[in-house]
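Lab manual, section 2.4: Encoding a predicted structure.

Procedure: take the sequence of the chain (96 residues), apply the prediction step described in section 2.3, and record the output as structure tokens. A sample record is shown.
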Amino acid sequence: MASRSATVVTALREQDLRYAVLEVAPGSARVTVPAVHTGAIVAAHDPDAVLDRRRSRTAILTLTVTEHGYHFSPRSSGLDLDAPAIRADLRGDARR
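Recorded output:
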């Protein structure tokens, strides 16, 4: 079973959803702190919150799928359609 860790979400919440971005170029470096996020949710822990956001007046909803969320097939070099979790998603009966 893939890990569905809340580590990043917890850290973001503790930092008021802010983080530093370091841009490095020859001869210079710049740090910025974007203030662009209004929330962070672990879908596996609170799927209803994700759906609520989708139904709300939220203008932009982004999703990040970590490496633990992918099922790669070396045979097809794409999504492993035979993986049990993917089959469940395709049937519409994935575990919530």
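Check your result against the sample. The mean pLDDT is 81.
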